[in-house]
Amino acid sequence: MDRAEDREPLVEIDGLQKLFDQSQGVVDTILGRDPQPVRAVDGVSLDIYQGDIVGIAGESGCGKTTLGKMLVKLHDPTEGSIRFDGEDITDMTREAEREFRKRVQMIFQDPFESLNPRMTVYDTVAEPLKINDMIESYDERRDRVTEVLEDVGLGPAEVYLDAFPDELSGGERQRVAIARALVVDPDFIVCDEPVSMLDVSIRAGVLNLMKELQSEYDLTYLFISHDLSLIRYMCDRAGIMYLGNMVEQGPTDDIIDDPKHPYTEALFDAVPDVELGEERRRANATGEVPSPRNPPSGCRYHPRCAHIIPPDDWTGSQDAFRRAYQFKLKVRRGDISPESVDSGDIETAEALVEHGLTLDVPEEYRTETEVATGGHRVDLSAVDLPTDTRRVLTEAAEAVLAGDADRAVSTLDDALTTSCAERQPEPQPSGTREVACHRYDDGGADGLDGSGAGLSAAPAED
Amino acid sequence: MATEQSDSGQDGRSIRRRWEPRIERLRRGWDRYTEHKIGVVGLIILIIYALWSIAPGVFAPHSPDWVAYLGEPPIKSRLTGEQIRSLPHPPAFGDPFFAPFGTNSLGNGVLTLVIYSAQNAMYIGLAAGMLSSLVGVPLGLISGFYGDTWIDEAIQRFVDIMYGLPFLPFLIVLVAIRGITTTNIIIGIAVTSWLNNCITVRGETLSLKERSYVESAKVAGASDTRIIFRHIMPNVLPISFVFLAQDAAGAVIAQASLAYLGLADFTANSWGLMLENIKSTGYVFKAWWWLIPPGIALMLMAASFYFIGFSMEDVTNPQR
């Protein structure tokens, strides 16, 4: 899979960043509020080699579409650079941009939106040719369009040439969109969820067509999708994005067989397996995706991470640290307060700690008491907490019960710290891949010596 | 020579091939238009008015200068006192003269005047409607396409200021300054009625420019001008058509209101002027045959524009 190494990359992305909503409204200016831009893409680096199909996966809102749009110059990056075939695309001359537009195309997600309803199929497909002055005569243009339409499986093309999009089915529309991208004979195509709006029954047809066209037209694809099985089917290399960061990238097979980043692992576990008889593992992650306006400090995944790294002097188990850290986050978010507990049986600080240490994760990662109480309470003896931490937690719980949430937060802030929250992990090469996680900071999965019992204390996984 | 001929023949064919799908589409649009009888009625009324304005002489029984008892100009004699006292004369058929809608106090045939006035109304309606579309649609397109920039901001603040102008007082001042001519009235109406056009088109453009076919055009390398006029405008035009019809109706009514207030070109025939005349001569409650026809003609013209606009909305925004 390392065939990429000896070739020149076609696209080089370096430290790419895109912030939206940087400008302020009048009211914000008057009130002196700082603008809080949406950090859609934040520090992504990626190389794409000629002839590869690179997949970008991630949840909705992780910035994968923004990344794709920057690659075709629909958005300009706020920071960082994109080089296409050695040339920086962020500030090109008119001439260079013209040349670039002929070589880079995009296929959009929704074929019902990506075709102008008032243009015939011929007009739609021929438009890039006309704009770029590629073929002068009408008849030659028509021949070229016919040829491409037949290449994408719309033959005989005469039937389609004069049709308007509203006369076509979803699959046919997407084929027209593909033809439009191919008509200029590009080198690189960004596909933004190209089949997600299509019926499942015709997806395979469109995907196979795209694979065939890749060899026929000598294309390089960037494939954006939330569907991991699709990435596995289509792509040679894959990148996993979370909240604007690229958390892991490498050969698709390696990533799928042995995900290294905790987020990748959770993402793959979240995909239902169709294979019968196999016990499915579910995603071991807590909470929801935070707002990209105000992302967490350090590693952006750390508030949800199952493998959060305890401090060096932590004497308890890693699981206990994760629970204690979740307790802190819950207090900070205001999720834990006497009123928020509905059953009313939590009156003592002890009970509140027991409640706060629970994890909202699938059953196989819970302790016995948690399963028995439906995730409402965890037995303190089952959690390997150091005594002084337990004392701090109780103290914080007392503060919460007394209605002083600020004191509780500051108590916990002092006691529970993690390197995950302090600095942002740089992508580290790890085997064939690059992983942005502090667990791989010194180049391998064995870099956990400092955190001692860390991984082993996590619920049985393998 | 032979090759040239075959080339032009090919050109002809390729042009036909290019336009065939559009003609087909037009035909389907027409089918949808005729689904509503109301639109067809509006179109028929408008066609009648159009014919009246193109060739009023064919439809009117007399010329507008015709005077009861005396006939067509050149008029050599004068009306007798008794004849003057019989004016406005109610509908008369053949004896002592032929005037199916009666006459006004000067002896002109009411039907004749109604038919001759259609031209003026059509002119004002279409000119004001088109003028306000010509101003409102491009400004709306530009404002929407450059939404959230200083261009948009400038245009929208200007629209806001224009909205502050009260319609009739503004028109009265304008006409008072520039003189009472039909052209000035059209300009006055257009200046105040392009605002709705602009705002609606802007809103539509704001939503259309987020469609991925616009992004797709950008990826293909299309210029802003091409995107605005080739991709956004065709999708906006149908709505502006609806507005054109409504503006036209509004203009006809506005012109009639102005004429009723005495702000009209008194040398031209118009329904508003007929109403103003009946008011100033004091026959409102006495000569119904003079009062009702211009009112109905006015109402039908406004209605026909509205009906057409209504049906156009169905053609351009089909909902199954």
Automatic annotation (TrEMBL), chain A:
Residues 21-268 form the ABC transporter domain. GO terms for molecular function: ATP binding; ATP hydrolysis activity. InterPro entries: AAA+_ATPase, ABC_transp_ATP-bind, ABC_transporter-like_ATP-bd, ABC_transporter-like_CS, Oligopep_ABC_C, P-loop_NTPase. Keywords: ATP-binding, Nucleotide-binding, Transport. Pfam families: ABC_tran, oligo_HPY. Signal peptide: none annotated. Residues 420-462 are annotated as: Disordered. GO terms for biological process: peptide transport; transmembrane transport. It comes from the Archaea. PANTHER family: TRANSPORT ATP-BINDING PROTEIN. This is Peptide/nickel transport system ATP-binding protein.
UniProtKB/TrEMBL annotation, chain B:
This is Peptide/nickel transport system permease protein. Belongs to the binding-protein-dependent transport system permease family. It comes from Halobaculum gomorrense. InterPro entries: BP-dependent_transpt_permease (IPR050366), MetI-like (IPR000515), MetI-like_sf (IPR035906), OppC_N (IPR025966). One of its GO terms (cellular component) is plasma membrane. The keyword Flavoprotein does not apply. It comes from the Archaea. It is found in: Cell membrane. The chain crosses the membrane at residues 38-59, 97-116, 123-147, 236-263, 287-310. Its main location: membrane. Pfam families: BPD_transp_1 (PF00528), OppC_N (PF12911).
